[in-house]
Amino acid sequence: MPVLPATEEAISQAAQALARGEIVAFPTETVYGLGADARDARAVTKVFAAKDRPRFNPLIVHVPDIAAAETYAPFDDTARKLAEAFWPGPLSLVLPKRPASGIADLVTAGLDTMALRAPNHAIAQALLKQRSCPSLRPPPTGPGGISPTDATHVAAELGDLPAMILDGGPCARGLESTVVRVTGETPALLRLGAVPRQEIEAVLGHPIALADEDAPIASPGQLVRHYAPNTPLRLDATEVEPDEALLAFGPSAPQGALTTINLSAAADLAEAATKLFASLRALDQSGASRIAVMPVPDQGLGEAINDRLRRAAKAR
Ligand code: AMP
Ligand code: MG
Protein backbone atom coordinates (compact mmCIF):
# COMPACT_ATOMS: atom_id res chain seq x y z
CA MET A 1 0.00 0.00 0.00
CA PRO A 2 1.29 3.46 -0.82
CA VAL A 3 2.89 5.68 1.79
CA LEU A 4 2.12 9.16 0.50
CA PRO A 5 3.47 12.49 1.66
CA ALA A 6 0.36 14.19 3.06
CA THR A 7 -0.17 16.78 0.36
CA GLU A 8 -3.57 18.39 -0.15
CA GLU A 9 -4.15 16.02 -3.04
CA ALA A 10 -3.19 12.94 -1.03
CA ILE A 11 -5.54 14.02 1.74
CA SER A 12 -8.41 14.32 -0.74
CA GLN A 13 -7.56 10.87 -2.05
CA ALA A 14 -7.62 9.56 1.50
CA ALA A 15 -11.06 11.10 2.09
CA GLN A 16 -12.29 9.47 -1.12
CA ALA A 17 -10.87 6.12 -0.02
CA LEU A 18 -12.74 6.46 3.28
CA ALA A 19 -15.92 7.26 1.36
CA ARG A 20 -15.43 4.05 -0.63
CA GLY A 21 -15.23 2.05 2.61
CA GLU A 22 -11.46 1.66 2.61
CA ILE A 23 -9.05 2.02 5.49
CA VAL A 24 -6.59 4.88 5.70
CA ALA A 25 -3.74 5.32 8.14
CA PHE A 26 -3.12 8.90 9.22
CA PRO A 27 -1.05 10.73 11.81
CA THR A 28 -2.46 12.51 14.85
CA GLU A 29 -0.46 14.25 17.56
CA THR A 30 -0.60 11.10 19.67
CA VAL A 31 0.03 8.17 17.36
CA TYR A 32 -0.79 6.99 13.84
CA GLY A 33 -4.36 5.80 13.60
CA LEU A 34 -6.17 3.45 11.26
CA GLY A 35 -9.30 5.25 10.13
CA ALA A 36 -12.54 4.04 8.63
CA ASP A 37 -15.80 5.84 7.92
CA ALA A 38 -17.61 5.73 11.27
CA ARG A 39 -20.99 5.16 9.65
CA ASP A 40 -19.87 2.28 7.45
CA ALA A 41 -20.09 -0.96 9.43
CA ARG A 42 -18.24 -2.98 6.78
CA ALA A 43 -15.35 -0.57 6.76
CA VAL A 44 -15.14 -0.55 10.54
CA THR A 45 -15.03 -4.34 10.49
CA LYS A 46 -11.90 -4.13 8.34
CA VAL A 47 -10.21 -2.01 10.98
CA PHE A 48 -10.82 -4.73 13.53
CA ALA A 49 -9.33 -7.28 11.18
CA ALA A 50 -5.94 -5.69 11.80
CA LYS A 51 -3.83 -8.19 13.63
CA ASP A 52 -3.38 -7.86 17.35
CA ARG A 53 -6.96 -6.67 17.68
CA PRO A 54 -8.63 -9.72 19.13
CA ARG A 55 -11.36 -7.71 20.83
CA PHE A 56 -14.04 -5.31 19.80
CA ASN A 57 -13.09 -2.50 22.11
CA PRO A 58 -14.96 0.68 21.35
CA LEU A 59 -13.09 3.07 19.08
CA ILE A 60 -12.62 6.80 19.39
CA VAL A 61 -14.43 8.75 16.68
CA HIS A 62 -12.22 11.54 15.40
CA VAL A 63 -13.82 14.82 14.36
CA PRO A 64 -12.48 18.25 13.40
CA ASP A 65 -14.27 20.23 16.13
CA ILE A 66 -17.09 20.53 18.66
CA ALA A 67 -19.68 21.36 16.02
CA ALA A 68 -18.97 18.10 14.19
CA ALA A 69 -18.91 16.15 17.45
CA GLU A 70 -22.31 17.51 18.42
CA THR A 71 -23.91 15.91 15.39
CA TYR A 72 -23.09 12.54 17.03
CA ALA A 73 -23.46 13.28 20.74
CA PRO A 74 -25.02 16.08 22.79
CA PHE A 75 -22.60 18.14 24.90
CA ASP A 76 -23.59 19.25 28.39
CA ASP A 77 -21.87 22.19 30.11
CA THR A 78 -19.07 20.03 31.49
CA ALA A 79 -18.33 18.39 28.16
CA ARG A 80 -18.32 21.77 26.46
CA LYS A 81 -15.96 23.24 29.03
CA LEU A 82 -13.52 20.38 28.59
CA ALA A 83 -13.70 20.43 24.80
CA GLU A 84 -13.25 24.19 24.68
CA ALA A 85 -10.21 23.91 26.92
CA PHE A 86 -8.48 20.95 25.26
CA TRP A 87 -9.72 20.63 21.68
CA PRO A 88 -8.12 20.23 19.34
CA GLY A 89 -5.92 18.06 21.50
CA PRO A 90 -5.28 14.68 23.09
CA LEU A 91 -8.49 14.47 25.14
CA SER A 92 -11.23 11.96 24.29
CA LEU A 93 -14.69 12.55 25.73
CA VAL A 94 -17.12 9.69 26.32
CA LEU A 95 -20.61 11.08 25.79
CA PRO A 96 -24.12 9.72 25.25
CA LYS A 97 -24.52 8.72 21.61
CA ARG A 98 -27.42 10.26 19.73
CA PRO A 99 -29.77 7.46 18.68
CA ALA A 100 -29.80 8.84 15.12
CA SER A 101 -26.03 9.38 15.01
CA GLY A 102 -25.60 6.82 12.25
CA ILE A 103 -22.42 5.59 13.92
CA ALA A 104 -21.89 1.89 13.28
CA ASP A 105 -22.60 -0.34 16.27
CA LEU A 106 -19.14 -1.86 16.09
CA VAL A 107 -17.54 1.53 16.69
CA THR A 108 -19.13 1.77 20.12
CA ALA A 109 -19.07 -1.99 20.75
CA GLY A 110 -22.83 -1.86 21.16
CA LEU A 111 -22.74 0.78 23.91
CA ASP A 112 -25.07 3.77 23.94
CA THR A 113 -22.11 6.02 24.69
CA MET A 114 -19.29 6.99 22.35
CA ALA A 115 -15.82 8.47 22.56
CA LEU A 116 -15.03 11.60 20.54
CA ARG A 117 -11.85 13.51 19.96
CA ALA A 118 -10.66 16.41 17.81
CA PRO A 119 -6.95 15.84 17.20
CA ASN A 120 -4.50 18.72 17.10
CA HIS A 121 -2.72 17.80 13.91
CA ALA A 122 -2.95 19.65 10.60
CA ILE A 123 -3.12 16.50 8.46
CA ALA A 124 -5.71 14.81 10.65
CA GLN A 125 -7.73 18.02 10.73
CA ALA A 126 -7.64 18.39 6.96
CA LEU A 127 -8.77 14.80 6.50
CA LEU A 128 -11.48 14.92 9.17
CA LYS A 129 -12.99 18.11 7.75
CA GLN A 130 -13.81 15.92 4.76
CA ARG A 131 -14.78 12.76 6.67
CA SER A 132 -15.21 11.98 10.38
CA CYS A 133 -13.88 8.57 11.24
CA PRO A 134 -13.21 6.27 14.13
CA SER A 135 -9.64 5.25 14.35
CA LEU A 136 -7.63 2.87 16.38
CA ARG A 137 -4.00 2.55 17.05
CA PRO A 138 -2.29 0.08 14.76
CA PRO A 139 -0.59 -2.76 16.61
CA PRO A 140 2.79 -1.92 18.08
CA THR A 141 5.74 -2.59 15.84
CA GLY A 142 8.68 -4.78 16.58
CA PRO A 143 9.71 -6.95 19.49
CA GLY A 144 9.88 -3.98 21.85
CA GLY A 145 6.27 -3.05 21.14
CA ILE A 146 7.06 0.48 20.05
CA SER A 147 4.03 2.69 19.40
CA PRO A 148 3.33 3.52 15.78
CA THR A 149 4.52 7.11 15.84
CA ASP A 150 6.01 7.01 12.38
CA ALA A 151 4.54 6.13 8.96
CA THR A 152 7.23 3.51 8.41
CA HIS A 153 6.20 1.69 11.60
CA VAL A 154 2.66 1.53 10.29
CA ALA A 155 3.72 0.35 6.85
CA ALA A 156 5.95 -2.35 8.27
CA GLU A 157 3.22 -3.78 10.42
CA LEU A 158 0.02 -3.53 8.45
CA GLY A 159 0.77 -4.77 4.97
CA ASP A 160 -2.19 -4.36 2.64
CA LEU A 161 -4.83 -3.41 5.19
CA PRO A 162 -4.82 0.37 4.69
CA ALA A 163 -5.55 1.60 1.17
CA MET A 164 -2.99 4.29 1.87
CA ILE A 165 -0.83 5.77 4.60
CA LEU A 166 -0.66 9.53 4.89
CA ASP A 167 2.89 10.28 5.91
CA GLY A 168 3.10 13.22 8.28
CA GLY A 169 6.45 12.40 9.81
CA PRO A 170 6.85 11.35 13.42
CA CYS A 171 4.04 12.12 15.90
CA ALA A 172 4.74 14.78 18.48
CA ARG A 173 3.50 13.04 21.60
CA GLY A 174 3.45 9.31 21.04
CA LEU A 175 1.21 8.95 24.07
CA GLU A 176 -2.45 8.02 23.94
CA SER A 177 -5.23 10.50 24.56
CA THR A 178 -6.65 10.96 28.04
CA VAL A 179 -10.20 9.54 28.16
CA VAL A 180 -12.83 11.28 30.31
CA ARG A 181 -16.40 10.06 30.64
CA VAL A 182 -18.95 12.85 30.92
CA THR A 183 -22.13 10.86 31.21
CA GLY A 184 -23.43 10.52 34.77
CA GLU A 185 -23.46 12.97 37.60
CA THR A 186 -19.70 13.39 37.87
CA PRO A 187 -17.09 13.01 35.15
CA ALA A 188 -14.66 10.12 35.52
CA LEU A 189 -11.17 9.59 34.23
CA LEU A 190 -11.24 6.35 32.20
CA ARG A 191 -7.67 6.43 30.94
CA LEU A 192 -4.63 8.43 31.85
CA GLY A 193 -2.96 9.93 28.80
CA ALA A 194 -1.40 12.95 27.19
CA VAL A 195 -3.53 15.53 29.04
CA PRO A 196 -2.50 15.37 32.72
CA ARG A 197 -5.20 14.88 35.34
CA GLN A 198 -4.32 18.18 37.07
CA GLU A 199 -5.07 20.16 33.90
CA ILE A 200 -8.49 18.57 33.68
CA GLU A 201 -9.17 19.25 37.34
CA ALA A 202 -8.16 22.89 36.87
CA VAL A 203 -10.80 23.28 34.16
CA LEU A 204 -13.48 21.39 36.09
CA GLY A 205 -12.71 23.19 39.33
CA HIS A 206 -12.78 19.96 41.30
CA PRO A 207 -10.88 16.68 41.56
CA ILE A 208 -11.66 13.88 39.12
CA ALA A 209 -11.36 10.25 40.14
CA LEU A 210 -9.69 7.60 38.04
CA ALA A 211 -12.35 4.97 37.39
CA ASP A 212 -11.46 1.99 39.51
CA GLU A 213 -10.60 -1.04 37.43
CA ASP A 214 -12.29 -3.23 40.00
CA ALA A 215 -15.47 -1.19 40.06
CA PRO A 216 -18.50 -2.91 38.57
CA ILE A 217 -18.68 -0.51 35.62
CA ALA A 218 -15.20 -1.45 34.51
CA SER A 219 -13.87 -4.56 32.95
CA PRO A 220 -10.29 -5.62 33.64
CA GLY A 221 -7.69 -3.65 31.77
CA GLN A 222 -10.20 -1.73 29.73
CA LEU A 223 -12.26 0.50 31.96
CA VAL A 224 -15.17 0.13 29.61
CA ARG A 225 -18.61 -1.09 30.50
CA HIS A 226 -19.44 -3.61 27.82
CA TYR A 227 -22.73 -4.00 26.13
CA ALA A 228 -24.55 -7.02 27.53
CA PRO A 229 -28.05 -8.25 26.81
CA ASN A 230 -30.49 -8.78 29.70
CA THR A 231 -31.45 -12.18 28.38
CA PRO A 232 -29.06 -14.97 29.43
CA LEU A 233 -26.82 -16.40 26.74
CA ARG A 234 -26.14 -20.08 26.12
CA LEU A 235 -22.97 -20.49 24.12
CA ASP A 236 -21.92 -23.30 21.76
CA ALA A 237 -25.51 -24.29 21.09
CA THR A 238 -26.02 -26.97 18.46
CA GLU A 239 -29.76 -27.38 18.98
CA VAL A 240 -32.47 -25.04 20.32
CA GLU A 241 -35.39 -25.06 22.72
CA PRO A 242 -38.71 -23.53 21.59
CA ASP A 243 -38.47 -20.72 24.17
CA GLU A 244 -35.00 -19.72 23.01
CA ALA A 245 -33.92 -17.13 20.48
CA LEU A 246 -31.15 -18.38 18.23
CA LEU A 247 -28.08 -16.43 17.20
CA ALA A 248 -27.01 -18.60 14.31
CA PHE A 249 -23.84 -18.79 12.28
CA GLY A 250 -23.33 -20.65 9.04
CA PRO A 251 -25.56 -22.59 6.67
CA SER A 252 -26.88 -25.29 9.00
CA ALA A 253 -28.80 -23.51 11.74
CA PRO A 254 -31.09 -25.77 13.78
CA GLN A 255 -34.84 -25.18 13.39
CA GLY A 256 -37.42 -24.55 16.07
CA ALA A 257 -36.30 -21.42 17.88
CA LEU A 258 -38.74 -18.71 18.92
CA THR A 259 -36.88 -16.41 16.60
CA THR A 260 -33.58 -16.72 14.72
CA ILE A 261 -31.04 -14.27 13.41
CA ASN A 262 -28.15 -15.62 11.39
CA LEU A 263 -24.95 -13.64 11.77
CA SER A 264 -23.86 -15.00 8.42
CA ALA A 265 -25.51 -17.86 6.58
CA ALA A 266 -22.42 -17.91 4.36
CA ALA A 267 -20.19 -18.30 7.46
CA ASP A 268 -18.43 -15.04 6.63
CA LEU A 269 -16.77 -13.73 9.81
CA ALA A 270 -16.63 -10.14 8.59
CA GLU A 271 -20.37 -10.16 7.93
CA ALA A 272 -20.93 -11.72 11.34
CA ALA A 273 -18.84 -9.05 13.06
CA THR A 274 -20.81 -6.34 11.34
CA LYS A 275 -24.13 -7.76 12.53
CA LEU A 276 -23.11 -8.92 16.00
CA PHE A 277 -24.30 -6.16 18.31
CA ALA A 278 -27.47 -5.26 16.44
CA SER A 279 -28.42 -8.96 16.34
CA LEU A 280 -27.84 -9.44 20.07
CA ARG A 281 -29.91 -6.36 20.76
CA ALA A 282 -32.79 -7.57 18.57
CA LEU A 283 -32.79 -11.03 20.12
CA ASP A 284 -32.63 -9.49 23.59
CA GLN A 285 -35.92 -7.76 22.80
CA SER A 286 -37.58 -10.85 21.34
CA GLY A 287 -39.09 -12.04 24.62
CA ALA A 288 -37.16 -15.32 24.55
CA SER A 289 -36.08 -16.76 27.89
CA ARG A 290 -32.56 -17.42 26.61
CA ILE A 291 -30.39 -16.62 23.62
CA ALA A 292 -28.75 -19.74 22.23
CA VAL A 293 -25.55 -18.96 20.33
CA MET A 294 -24.09 -21.30 17.75
CA PRO A 295 -20.34 -21.85 17.78
CA VAL A 296 -18.29 -19.36 15.79
CA PRO A 297 -14.84 -20.46 14.56
CA ASP A 298 -12.14 -18.98 16.77
CA GLN A 299 -10.01 -17.61 13.95
CA GLY A 300 -9.41 -14.10 12.63
CA LEU A 301 -12.38 -11.90 13.50
CA GLY A 302 -13.99 -14.96 15.05
CA GLU A 303 -11.70 -14.53 18.03
CA ALA A 304 -13.07 -11.05 18.64
CA ILE A 305 -16.64 -12.22 18.12
CA ASN A 306 -16.14 -15.01 20.65
CA ASP A 307 -14.54 -12.61 23.10
CA ARG A 308 -17.62 -10.39 22.99
CA LEU A 309 -19.99 -13.32 23.22
CA ARG A 310 -18.18 -14.69 26.26
CA ARG A 311 -18.31 -11.27 27.93
CA ALA A 312 -21.98 -10.91 27.12
CA ALA A 313 -22.64 -14.36 28.58
CA LYS A 314 -20.70 -13.56 31.74
CA ALA A 315 -21.90 -10.00 32.25
CA ARG A 316 -25.10 -10.82 34.07
P1 AMP B 1 -7.51 3.77 21.58
O1 AMP B 1 -6.97 2.52 22.18
O2 AMP B 1 -6.59 4.94 21.69
O3 AMP B 1 -8.07 3.57 20.21
O4 AMP B 1 -8.74 4.18 22.50
C1 AMP B 1 -9.86 3.38 22.63
C2 AMP B 1 -10.28 3.45 24.07
O5 AMP B 1 -11.22 4.50 24.28
C3 AMP B 1 -11.02 2.24 24.53
O6 AMP B 1 -10.19 1.15 24.82
C4 AMP B 1 -11.71 2.79 25.77
O7 AMP B 1 -10.81 2.85 26.83
C5 AMP B 1 -12.07 4.18 25.34
N1 AMP B 1 -13.48 4.27 24.89
C6 AMP B 1 -13.94 4.41 23.64
N2 AMP B 1 -15.29 4.43 23.61
C7 AMP B 1 -15.72 4.31 24.88
C8 AMP B 1 -16.99 4.26 25.51
N3 AMP B 1 -18.15 4.36 24.82
N4 AMP B 1 -17.04 4.10 26.85
C9 AMP B 1 -15.91 4.02 27.57
N5 AMP B 1 -14.66 4.06 27.03
C10 AMP B 1 -14.55 4.20 25.71
MG1 MG C 1 -7.34 0.89 23.24
UniProtKB/TrEMBL annotation:
Chain ranges of the YrdC-like domain: 8-195
InterPro entries registered for this protein in UniProt: DHBP_synth_RibB-like_a/b_dom, Sua5-like_dom, Sua5/YwlC_C, Sua5_C, T(6)A37_SUA5, TC-AMP_synthase_SUA5
Binding positions for ATP per the UniProt entry: R53, N57, T113, S147, R191, Y227
Superkingdom of origin: Bacteria
Main location, first listed in the record: cytoplasm
Binding positions (L-threonine): T30, H62, R117, S177
A Pfam family matched in the record: Sua5_C
Localisation: Cytoplasm
Any one GO molecular function term: L-threonylcarbamoyladenylate synthase
GO cellular component terms given for this protein: cytoplasm
Entries under PROSITE patterns matching the protein: YRDC
Keywords: ATP-binding, Cytoplasm, Nucleotide-binding, Nucleotidyltransferase, Transferase, tRNA processing
Similarity-based family: Belongs to the SUA5 family.
Name of the protein: Threonylcarbamoyl-AMP synthase
Organism lineage: Bacteria, Pseudomonadati, Pseudomonadota, Alphaproteobacteria, Hyphomicrobiales
